[in-house]
């Protein structure tokens, strides 16, 4: 497409790969589906279209081609440069847009792997119908996923999005991977200091569904009431989490632990904490995996995720119920218990007389060795006494 300015009858699009994928009858959606065009004829660098739903467009508006698997990597040259910059800056998570197939995630992982020592985690944004077809494999290759409802609702019929949201959340829960629900959650707060009742209900539904996190976009990126939007979202989440139904729904959707020592310990930790009415579950983790498996169990107690690694501490902040704590690796059982009790108290989760459930792995500081469950009680003078171990 040439560099001529757009008019009421034409608009430049600098993506030859889009034209290559079009054929007569293809649909083009512009600006989150507000405008709909049908392709009448097309070539290598143009498409003649008929306007089905008209409207105004301006620069930098998105173009969607539903039901077409674009023969392109989701990573453009600019994305590759941006990825390099993000890795250099020490980003914790990278959100990968328009993932269509597992190989898209594998490619991003390969690029990140080229940077020595980088442990950036990949959050795959699910916004294409083809991603839903490959859901299990994409989740497997990703560190987390995002239900990006804006584009998903453009390319899939809007009435299917709530069902897809529940399906994606459930699949992530099964895999023990964090899932973020995003886009248009409090959309009216871009221009209004309070949300609609439907929006408040939408945020609540994402929490009831079992989402690890909810995300604001335009509300805080370009909205007039960013602080009010964040505050409102927090209030809705708190309300839901204090609702008795929330725990009932969460318990009803609990999954069987996988047949691994780590999962057996995580499930036991949840059960022991429930039986004893413990104040917190403390997980010692070097890679974050112990915390992720503990969160998969959805315990009633907060999970204190203790790690010596600042990157892991920041990455775990995204995980359901997890509260990250930075601390040097422990070297003995006694130190493990003493510190766990101290953190539970100092971070405001436990008081004197409360019990704390602790999981860790021996040898300490090694990844993937979760094999210990301990119960300790918070005592008056900063000491503790050990209780039964498994």
UniProtKB/TrEMBL annotation:
SUPFAM superfamilies: Phosphoenolpyruvate/pyruvate domain, PK beta-barrel domain-like, PK C-terminal domain-like
Pfam families (UniProt xref): PK, PK_C
Ranges of residues in domain Pyruvate kinase barrel: 13-230
Keywords: ATP-binding, Glycolysis, Kinase, Magnesium, Metal-binding, Nucleotide-binding, Pyruvate, Transferase
Pathways per UniProt: Carbohydrate degradation; glycolysis; pyruvate from D-glyceraldehyde 3-phosphate: step 5/5
Keyword Lyase (UniProt): no
Similarity-based family: Belongs to the pyruvate kinase family.
PANTHER family, per database record: PYRUVATE KINASE
UniProt name for this protein: Pyruvate kinase
Organism: Paramagnetospirillum magneticum (strain ATCC 700264 / AMB-1) (Magnetospirillum magneticum)
């Amino acid at each position: 497409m040439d560099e001529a300015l757009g008019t009421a009858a034409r608009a430049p699009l600098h993506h030859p790969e889009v034209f290559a994928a079009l054929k007569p009858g293809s649909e083009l959606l512009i600006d989150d589906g507000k405008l709909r065009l049908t392709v009448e004829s097309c070539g290598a660098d143009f498409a003649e279209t008929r306007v089905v739903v008209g409207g105004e467009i301006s620069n930098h508006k998105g173009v969607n081609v539903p039901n077409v698997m674009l023969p392109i990597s989701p990573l453009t040259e600019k994305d590759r440069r941006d990825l390099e910059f993000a890795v250099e800056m020490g980003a914790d998570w990278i959100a990968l847009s328009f993932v269509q197939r597992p190989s898209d995630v594998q490619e991003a992982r390969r690029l990140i792997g080229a940077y020595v020592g980088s442990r950036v985690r990949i959050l795959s944004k699910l916004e294409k119908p083809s991603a839903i077809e490959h859901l299990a494999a994409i989740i497997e290759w990703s560190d987390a996923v995002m239900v990006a409802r804006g584009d998903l609702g453009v390319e899939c019929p809007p009435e299917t999005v709530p069902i897809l949201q529940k399906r994606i959340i459930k699949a992530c829960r099964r895999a023990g991977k964090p899932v973020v629900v995003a886009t248009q959650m409090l959309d009216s707060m871009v221009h209004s200091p309070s949300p609609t009742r439907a929006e408040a209900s939408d945020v609540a539904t994402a929490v009831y569904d079992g989402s690890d996190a909810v995300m604001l976009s335009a509300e805080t990126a370009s909205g007039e009431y960013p602080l009010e939007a964040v505050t409102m979202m927090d209030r809705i989440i708190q309300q839901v989490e204090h609702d008795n139904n929330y725990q009932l729904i969460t318990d009803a959707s609990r999954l069987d632990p996988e047949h691994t020592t780590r999962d057996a310990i995580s499930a036991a930790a949840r059960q022991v904490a429930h039986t004893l009415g413990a104040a917190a579950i403390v997980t010692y983790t070097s890679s974050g995996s112990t915390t992720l498996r503990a969160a998969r169990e959805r315990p009633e107690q907060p999970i204190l995720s203790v790690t010596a690694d600042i990157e892991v501490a920041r990455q775990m902040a995204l995980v359901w119920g997890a509260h990250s704590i930075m601390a040097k690796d422990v070297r003995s059982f006694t130190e493990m218990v003493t510190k766990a009790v101290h953190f539970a108290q100092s971070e405001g989760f436990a008081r004197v007389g409360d019990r704390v459930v602790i999981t860790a792995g021996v040898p300490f500081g090694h990844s993937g060795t979760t094999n210990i469950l301990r119960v300790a009680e918070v005592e008056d003078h900063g000491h503790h006494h050990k209780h039964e171990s498994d």
